[in-house]
Structures are given as structure tokens and as C-alpha cells.
Amino acid sequence: MDSTSRADSTELAEYAAMLRRRWWVVVAGALLGLAIAVAGLFLLPKSYVSTAVVQVSPTDPEQRQNNNNKSDISLETEAQRLRSTEVTSLVQKRIGSGESPLDLGRRVQVNVPPNSSVLVIDWAAPSAAKARAGAQAFAEAYLQNRNDKTVQRLQTQAAALEKQISDVRTKLATAGATQRRVLAGQMTAFSNKLTDIQVAMANVDGGEIITSASPPPGPASPDPVKFLPSGLAGGLLLGIVLAILYDRIDRRVRVAGDVERVLDLPVLLSIPQRRGKEGLGLLPARSRSGQNFHELAHEMTATLGHGNHVILVTGAAPGPGSSIVSVNLAAALARTGSNVLLVCANLQSPLASDLLGLHRGAGLSELLLGRVELRDVVRRNHALPSLATITPGADADLAAEMLQREQMARLIGSLREKARFTVIEAPSTELGADAQALADLSDAALIVVETPRTRYAQIRDGVRRIHRMGAAVLGAVVLPRQDETAVAAPPPTLPREPRDMPPRRRDGSAGPAAPPLSPPASPPGSKEPRRAAAPAAREPGPRRDPLGEPEGQRQRKHARPPAPDASEGGGQDKPNDKTITLGAINLDAFASPDEDAVSPAADTLTDKTAKKLNRP
Predict the structure, then answer these.
(1) Average pLDDT for residues 436-460, to the nearest whole number?
(2) How many CB atoms lie within 10 A of CB 39?
(3) How many CB atoms within 10 Å of residue 462?
(4) Which stretch of DSSP H or E encloses residue 465?
(5) CB atoms within 10 A of CB 399
(6) Which of 130-139, 157-166, 409-418, 553-562 has the lowest mean pLDDT?
(7) Residue 567: is it exposed, middle or buried by C-beta count within 10 angstroms (0-12/13-18/19+)?
(8) Which of 113, 277, 453, 601 is most buried, most CB within 10 Å of its CB?
């Protein structure tokens, strides 16, 4: 099959899918057409049609004797004679119509069946009686006119013969014997011919009515047998046209093909619509959709190349789609053996942590506010040992503005060197500049499109904002619209390890013992302050920058002067615009000490990868 046939089949499939989506428009159009047809049956004036059939016979006596009717009579000419003014004038008198003879001739229908010598006369009228009277009047008037014409012709011939006979008689009075014999012969011939004409005049028969008109049993128009199917077919055609127009006017994305067709944005993954209202969750690895996410993970690994990378996942429209995609993408990357960190930067939605079965304790919000250290907020789902998660946290309202400040930039820069992939779940690009600020810290981005929630303008605007920040938009992930309350719960996982246990290696074994960590945050509803045990859990020693090294040994391009120590400032660290509160972050709580150091070349890509990402 060539490319042209494939394109045609794809376009037909798109139209079929469009009709399935807009089926209610097609059905409404069909019902509308049927309703119009039914209304027409009751509202349109009734028309009754009666039929009379006339057989046309030759009027010439010689033609009758030779039985040569068909060759000498032109039925088409006779049909036109039936519509003539002479015939319609007779009809007007017979039925007492107020219409002019010309109008009557236009209304009558005359049909000539092939290989026959008959005329079929149809006459339509508002009532059955009038229809019958009109058809019968036309048949009788036509035969009368035809007979009258024949009689007039024979009378003319007879008059000519009589004159000739009179002339012969006059000549006989003065003619000689020889001439008398000749004139006597002529007299006899003329007399015989006159006798034949007189006999023909007495027996003129231009035809006969073989089927007299009768009152019709019902109206011929509007006919339900023809009217209702015609209305239904017309309504279906109207519904299809309206469905196509409505689909083109509607600016919401309905299927994955619309993203590529309208926006020219590649669709990396498309999740089909499930039956019922069951929502997506943390998909099993061997499920069809789970394997699709594995394919996406392999494609992104091949596209990004070697080194550590930060991937931004954001939705073009508000919704839980970005949380679902970020969790499943991070899980798929982790199943490949890569060290993956999921950062839930969508602070207003705890859905990602819920899907992974993590409790809603301290998280990114408290980390940005300087209330906890990194090792206190990094959590794991033991079904995925290679995946670590930083949950949104509880103080989302206070930390919302911190996503666009230097604290977030230093945190992502630090995490980049410790994790093979850092997946950032960002708020929708429509909700503010958070996704745009996080795109500046990312190497690549995925746009999540929920159908039919997302509009073309939202996708176009989101891609433009991310491109302005220098991040490459690899493509879109399309999934059906998700209801946050209907998202499927994750499968049961193993019990969590105590907070003071060392992190696991890639093979799942436990590493060396780590210093004791601070106790988890107080559950909701507890009267004990959440931050009561945090100061006591911190160990004394030199403060460390976000890279886990003593202060002053490493400086990054986004680094600011380190925050003063609590002992020097006489109190606990407090966030402000001039102080970075991540000085106490210890990334050793995330990466096992005995693991080989991962290459920090986050921006080191192959030439092929650089072209794909449109980076210099």
C-alpha cells in the first residue's frame, strides 16, 4: 500500500472518529429531517391524481383497412394536441374551471408508453372528485376534438366532390355521345367516392377511452412512502454536514490526531479512552498502557543521551493529567534501573504522592521554606527502589512563590548531579509562571493534553512559553479527561522502612547506616506542633551547600551567599528574598555513599541529541 492510500485511509478514519464523537449531531439532524417530513404530511396541501387512458385510432378509412395504425400516428404529436388551446378550452367548459386554457394545458400530464398506441392522462386536483372530473374531461375533450377535426376534413372533401359532380352534370347537358360516356364514368367515380366519404363521416372514430378516470383512493402528494424516507435521508445529510462544521469550530482537542493535524506537535504517547469512569493511576508495568510509558521512557533516554537530565512535565490545561503522567514516566524510568527523582512541584495537588502511596507529610514546601532538610522529605515506594519522591508538602500557600526564586534553582541544580533523571511535575502553564520558571531549569519538557478538556490555544500558548525559556518540547502525551476523585488507587506496596534506615542501592540492598533523621511530621489533627522535633534532629557540624559539600568548596552559577548559621544568627533560619535556606541540605540521604558518582555533565549531549533539543 502506497503512502497516498495510507493517507486516504487515515483521513477516512479521522472522519469516522469525528462522526462517532458528534453522533448526537447526526442523530439530531436525522430527527429534524424526519420531523419536517411528518409536519409536511399534515401541513402541506393534499393533491389527488386521477388517470385516464385513451387509445388513439386512425381516422382515415384507408388506414383502418390497411391496419397500419402505428406507422402513421405520431403519439408525441397527439400528446401536444391534447395540451392545445382547442382541447383545454373544451375542458374549461366541461369542468367549469376559472383557470385559463393555457394554465390548464401546463398542469395536465400526458405520458406515452413505448410500443403502444395509447395516451396516459394524469390530472391533479385538491380533491378526489375534481381530479377524476379533470382527467375524464381531458380524455373526452381530446377525442371530441380529434373527431371534429376528422369530420371537418371529410366535409371539405365531400364538398369538393359535390362541386366536381355538379360540374360534370353541367357538361353532360351539352356534351356529345362520346364525351357523355367519359363524363358518365367520372360521375360514377365521384359519386362512389362521395358515398365513401359520407359513410366515413357517419362512422368517425378517432379513438376510445379504454380506462375511464376514477376517484383516487388517497392523496398522491405528500406521499408518506416517499416523504418520510426523503426527510430522513435529508436530515442525515444535514446532520453530517453540521457535525463536520461543529467539529471544525470546536477548539477543544478530541483525539490525539488533532494535536498533530492542527498544531504540528508530535504525540509521543496516547492513552485510549476506557469504558466507564475508571480513572488512570500508577499503571502496572506489564499492562498495555504501562508498556506504552516504558516505550516513552526509552525514547526519551535515547533522545536526551548520556548524562543527567531534568524533565519537566506540565499540563496545557488545569487537571490531574500532569500528575498521572509524571508518576508513570518516573516509574517507567526507574524500572530501567536509572536513579530517578520525582519532584512534585505542583504544590496544590497531592495526587502524585497519593498514587505512589506516600503519606502527606513535610515536602517541597517545607524544604523551600527552610524548615526541613532534604533527607527529611525524600521518600520511596518500595515497589520501585530506584524512584525517590519529594512530595508537595503541607504549606503550599506559603511556598507557592518560592518556585520562581533562587531557592528552587539551586535545589534543581543540586539534584541534577545526584539523579540520572529528575522529573518535575509542574503546574499547568495556564495557571501562572511557575511552569515557565521551572522550564528554565529543565532540559526537555512534555505537554500533557487531556481530551476533551484542553483547547488548541492552551497547547499553543504553553509550548510557546516553554520554548521562550530554552527548553525543548519533545512532544505531547494525550490521555482522556481525568476526574481527580476517580483516579485509581495504587497497588499495595511493601511497608515503609523506618525513617532512620539507610537508602537502598539500585539492586535493592541496604546501604551503610545513616545518621538518625528527624521524626516524621505530626499527623493532621495533632495538637503537637509539626516543627517541634526538627531542631533537635539536626546534627551539629559545618553547614553544607545544596551539593552536599562544606561551604565554600563549590560555587554554582545560581548560588548566592550562604545563609548564616542558626548559632550565629541566634535563631532558626527564616526565608526571605536575600537568604538561601538550603544550606543544610544533605544529598547523601538520597544517593547511597557506595554508589559511583554520576557524571555531573548535565548539559553534555551528543551532537544528535543537541540537534533534537535545538540547543547549541
Answers:
(1) 91
(2) 11
(3) 27
(4) helix 456-468
(5) 24
(6) 553-562
(7) exposed
(8) 453
DSSP run (H or E) holding 193: helix 177-202
Rounded Cα distance between 562 and 552, Å, is 9
Whether the Cβ atoms of residue 356 and residue 307 lie closer than 8 Å to each other: no
pTM over 0.85: no
pLDDT above 70: residue 236: yes
Give the residue from 135, 114, 110 showing the smallest Cα distance to 125. 135
**Cα R_g (the chain), whole angstroms:** 49
Q: How far is it, in rounded angstroms, from Cα 472 to Cα 469?
A: 9
Place of cell 490525539: 256
| pLDDT confidence band for 61 (50 / 70 / 90) | low
DSSP 264: -
> DSSP 3-state helix, strand, coil percentages of the chain (rounded to 5)?
45, 15, 40
The whole-number pLDDT of residue 65 equals 59
- 174, amino acid identity: T
pLDDT digits (tens, 9 = 90+) for 297-327: 999 999 998 899 999 999 999 989 999 999 9
pLDDT of residue 271: 87
User: Across 146-251, where does the E strand assignment appear?
Assistant: 207-211
Among residues 451, 474, 327, 295, the alpha carbon closest in space to that of 392 is found at 327
C-alpha cell at 590: 538520597
In angstroms, rounded to a whole number, what is the distance separating the alpha carbons of residues 183 and 151?
29
Q: What is the DSSP string of 104-118?
A: HHHH-EEE--TT-SE
Mean local confidence (pLDDT), 253-274: 85
600 has a pLDDT exceeding 50 = no
Starting at the edge strand found earlier in the chain, the sheet holding 267-270 runs 267-270, 472-480, 444-451, 309-315, 421-425, 340-344, 387-390, 378-380
**Residue of 615, 586, 321, 304 whose CA lies nearest to 467:** 615
First to last CA, the chain: 40
Q: What H or E segment, with its residue span, contains residue 445?
A: strand 444-451
| Run of H or E including 86 | helix 85-95
Tens digits of residue pLDDT in 102-113: 999 999 999 999
Tell me phi and psi for residue 303, to 5 degrees. Answer: -70, -45
State the Cα–Cα distance between residues 543 and 565, nearest whole angstrom: 7
Q: How confident is the model over 326-338, as pLDDT tens digits?
A: 999 999 999 988 8
Q: What is the pLDDT of residues 36-49, one digit of tens each?
A: 999 988 898 999 99
Amino acid type, 434: D
Strands 472-480 and 444-451: parallel
439: left (phi over 0), alpha (psi -120 to 50) or beta: alpha
Relative orientation angle of helices 85-95 and 128-172, to the nearest 10 degrees: 130
Among 409, 370, 325, smallest CA distance to 566 is for 370
Specify which residues 54 forms β-bridges with: 119, 209
Q: Measured between alpha carbons, how far is 556 from 188 in angstroms, rounded to an integer?
A: 143
